[in-house]
Amino acid sequence: SEVKEDADERAKAMAHAGLILQENLGRHHRAVKLYRAAIAEGLRDPLMLLKVLSAMESRGERRDILVVIERLTDAGLRGATKAKLHVRRAGLLCLESDFDEARKALIAASKEHPDFALFTEILLDILENHPGLALHDGNLLTLLNVESLTNWTVPNLLRLIRWYADNGHLEHALDIAGRLRASGQHTFSVLDARAFLSGEIYFKTSRKE
Fold first, then answer.
1. Most buried residue among 31, 35, 166, 200 by CB atoms closer than 10 A?
2. Regarding predicted confidence, which is higher, 95 or 11?
3. DSSP string, 46-107
4. Taking each helix axis from N to C terminus, what angle separates 28-41 and 62-72, rounded to the nearest 10 degrees?
5. What is the pLDDT of residue 67?
């Protein structure tokens, strides 16, 4: 409708004015106010939203960045671009301790882009810094298809093994270590991980007896 088109144009004009203020005049606080107004007006143009996101990440608050990312995930983007936005959102939500929504964002990313291995390092960073994310729901790693371990590098798999072990899942960690090939530059690391986990499981079983 004509009213909606007018709102879209106003939103883009405010965002554009904010970019000029920030990039050319250094008026960062005023620019952030204009970005917020543009979002409130209903800014949905993907290219302008991406520009606003970049500007917000350099100066905006975490909550502002989350709002822009959420708007972008509904702006018609697809594939790896949208998956990366979901992953970025998950990381920010973890900082807010909103593990329910962070978990949903990661699952959305895995559905949007089947080769989730592209994001394994980000996923591992999130797991290591926010163990409550996965422990909150034991099905998370299965839903993300982590169990298949497709295209994971050996260093990242060793990080995943350490994460499982640190959080009490020794048998699961040993199962993954057992599937790793002990060859090349990673031979010692793989064998060391297997030996450590086997020893931990032995001592754990002995204490129970």
1. 35
2. 11
3. HHHHHHHHHHHHHHS-HHHHHHHHHHHTTTT--HHHHHHHHHHHHHHHHHTT-HHHHHHHHH
4. 40
5. 92
